[in-house]
Each structure stands twice: as C-alpha cells, then as structure tokens.
Write a structure and sequence with these properties.
homodimer, about 240 residues, mainly alpha, Arc Repressor Mutant, subunit A, Tetracycline Repressor, domain 2, 10 helices, DNA-binding, DNA binding (chains A, B), DNA-binding (chains A, B), transcription (chains A, B), Tet_transcr_reg_TetR-rel_C_sf (chains A, B), HTH_TetR (chains A, B)
DNA sequence: GGTGTAAGGTCAACCCTGTTGGCATAAGGC
DNA sequence: GCCTTATGCCAACAGGGTTGACCTTACACC
C-alpha cells in the first residue's frame, strides 16, 4: 500500500502497467480531466480512473495519498493552465482583467473538474505562482501593501467563487441536459404576478440573463474599485 | 420504495417510527442540519440521518426522491433563515446590504450545510422568495428593468459564491483543526523571497487577512456600482 | 363503530465507493 | 549480472445510496 507516496521529482523506476502504459502524476491528472468530462463531476472514481489508465485502482495510491490529494492536483493543473494562457503587458488594469478572465476561462473549460476543485485552496506550486503574480501586478501598480493584499484577496476569492458557481451550472447543464436553465424558463416564467410581481415583470429579461456569468460584471466592479484606491493612494 | 414522494402539503397519515418520532420534511431537514454540524459536510449519510431520526434509512425516500433532493431542501432552509433574519427599511442601499449580509450569515451559520448547497440553484419556494425580494428592492429604487436584472444577477451569484467559498474554509477549519489557515502561516510565510518576492513582502499582511471573508468588500463594490447606475438612470 | 385501503415504516439485499495489506515482478544502481 | 526495493496487482474491508417486498396501522367511508 502507499505508506509513502514518492514525490514526482524523485521518481526513478518507471514500471509499465499491465496494459503497457507508463504512469506519471501528469498523465494521471490529464486522464482524470478526461474522465471528469466524460462521466461528470461525480464520475471520477478510483476504479474508473484506474480503468481509464489501464491500471489497478490501488496503483493510484503510489502517486497520491488519496482521492483528495488527486483532486487538489487537478485544481492546480487548472491554475497552471490559467497562468499559461496569460501574458503580462505591464498595464495593471489590463493585466488584472486578463488574468481574472484566464482563471475563469481555465476553470470553465473543465466545468466538472472546476466543481470539484474551485472552492478549495490547494497550496500547490501553480496556485502559489498565481498568487505571486496577482500581488506583483497590484504592488507594481503602486498600491500600498495593505491595500494590495485586500484587493488581492477579493480578486482571487471572487474569481474562484464565480468559477465554482458558473462551473456548477455549466456542468449541470452538460450532465442533465440543461435542467437548470430550463428551470428559469419553466418555473420562474410561470409564477403568478400577484404573489411574485417583480419576477413576473422581469421574467423575459431573467431568462435571457441567468444562463450567462455575472463574473465579468463583478470583475469590472473590482477593477473600478481598485482604480479608485490607486487614485487615493497617489494623492 | 418511494415510487412517488408525497408532497408535504398532501401528507395525511402520520405514522410514528419504531422509535416513536413522527417525521416531517421540516424535522428531517432540521435533523440533517444537526448531523451536518456534528459530523462534517461529508458526514451526512442516509444511514446516519436515519439513525439520528430513529428511523430506517429507506424511510427518507418517502419524503425525498434521494439524497440530492434532500440536499436542495437543506439549501432552501438556509435561504428561508436568511430572509427571516432580515427586515425592510425602504432604503434600497441599506436593504440590499442587510439582505446580502443576512444570506452570507445564514449560510456561514451552518458551514457544513453551506458547502453542500451554496453552489446550487434549488428552484424551491424560499429561494424564489429571496429572488423576488431582491428584484423588488432594485426596481423599487428606480432602476430600469434591464439594469435591475443585471445587478440582481451579480448580487445573488456573488452572495452565494462567497458563501460557498467562505463556508468551505470555515467547515474545513472546524473539521481539520484549521489546516487551511495554518497553510497560510506555514507554507506561504516560508517562501523564499527571491522566487516569490511579492508574497514574501506581504506575508504578514496575508496571514492576517486571508482567514477573513472578502465578501463585505465585494458587497460594497456592488453597492457602489449600483448607486452609480442609479445616478445615471436618474439623469 | 367496523372495515378496507394504501401510506408509510422496515428489512434485506444490490452494486458502488475509497482504501489497505500482502504479494509478485522488474527497473536500475552497483 | 545481481540485489534491492519501487511499483504494479489482487483480494478484501467497511461503509455509501438506493430499491423491492413486506408489514402495520392511520384514516376515509359507510
């Protein structure tokens, strides 16, 4: 059993599995992403992942201490992709906007994985790299440290929180043929106007708006707020 | 088996369980909240809830189609509590702020339950009542319908998203003796300054800030933004 | 008040899950 | 080419959601 997981860097022997594949943390995580996409956010099981890898489920415990650690590794993979799909321009506002959208997009590209991971701090390398980058942008813009930290906190939490929420409805839509969005059209559109006047009056607008993400709007609010803080700091 | 779940309103016969308790949707949900608090967000199981109720696990299927529907009922209970802990003053900004904090507080009062439910739209009565209330505040303030719907969307998603995220770390803290917050103090505080200069420079501030919620700050940003929209609409 | 019906509680069983102890085997340092 | 031991595999465990069949008793009706 996996009394001790060998860290990826220290791995020397690479013994092929019975099916012939050679495992690695990276390929396990990649396969897990595929399994998640194909079988939904609750469909990632040790047995299924083992089958997809052509390996015994228990082999996974040679690479990760448990399904929980594997989950965190998946989250870190998404963070890595977010950072990979981003380049610095030097203009803080554009950079922060682009990074926020990159994070949001990276998670929404794998909604089933995002549901599992977006509401968890992993403490893994690529998540830390993202944190470092954000703080760098804010401090580079000239924000005093206490303000930078406050904005950083709101930024990362907001990005992850919306990623989790938006991924939730996206994954649900994938998995259950848009039950959720249908809810808006069916349930909300037919509420009696006398008991729910405001929903009734805006039902059309709601049905059009709810399937989209509120993240871009929230992000712009944060940028606006940050600009105001920056102006105040510069006085 | 529960081929058909009898809706609570239509329930007529109330047969006591072997242990003598008389079940109802309400008491099942209440008991589930207790079980969640005592056993953590992953500790709500049909068998355990049955034991806590003094009933066979399969009895639950007479009241809910499955654990999933039970989960949604729990979420709706939290929404109901949020709305119950709120009173209208007539001033839109104060009302919206109070409602946002009430939602956030209601969820954080049951972090383990919030983790399970906050990232899901339930479509149940009390959630709808909250939606109606928010729209009422915004439209009552004089926002044009399209703007009201946009702000409503950002408001409810932001509130739920932060509730889920904050509840996550709160529940984790309860369950694993603050592993997460310790991460900030241990992992982040000891990153070398040459590879992570920005984290290193703000480590103290981060350790102080991260255990708190960024929701109040985000909420104020949304209120500010809404006020600006209102001023523009009034021109 | 007696009777019939079926709601609602119970039991046993199904197949699934994560996880582990013991074992076999082959990779790679020497 | 040998030896060590990392790494893959097998079998088994406890506990998960869910269901089909059964039993019992609360209520509607006469």
């Amino acid at each position: 059993m996996a009394k001790q997981v060998v860290p990826e860097g220290a791995r020397q022997r690479r013994r092929p599995t019975r099916a012939g594949t050679v495992l690695s943390e990276e390929m396990i995580v990649h396969t897990a992403l595929r399994v998640l996409r194909e079988h939904g956010s609750a469909g990632l099981t040790a047995r299924r992942l083992g089958a997809a890898l052509g390996a015994d489920p228990s082999t996974l415990y040679r690479y990760f201490a448990g399904m929980d650690e594997l989950t965190r590794a998946i989250g870190d993979e998404l963070m890595g992709r977010a950072l990979a799909g981003w380049t610095a321009s030097g203009e803080w506002r554009a950079d922060l906007r682009a990074l926020g959208r990159a994070i949001h997009a990276a998670y929404l590209a794998h909604p089933q994985a995002a549901v599992l991971t977006a509401s968890r701090v992993t403490g893994r390398p690529r998540e830390i790299a993202v944190d470092e980058t954000i703080l760098g942008i804010l401090r580079g813009a000239g924000l005093p440290d206490p303000v930078a930290v406050r904005v950083y906190h709101a930024f990362i939490d907001q990005s992850l929180a919306f990623a989790a929420l938006d991924a939730g409805s996206l994954a649900l839509a994938d998995e259950t043929r848009a039950v959720d969005e249908e809810m808006w059209r069916s349930t909300y559109a037919h509420l009696p106007a006398d008991s729910h006047p405001n929903i009734a009056a805006t039902a059309q607008l709601l049905a059009r708006r709810m399937p989209h993400s509120a993240y871009p709007a929230a992000l712009e609010m944060l940028l606006e707020h940050t600009a105001a803080q920056l102006a105040r700091a510069g006085e």
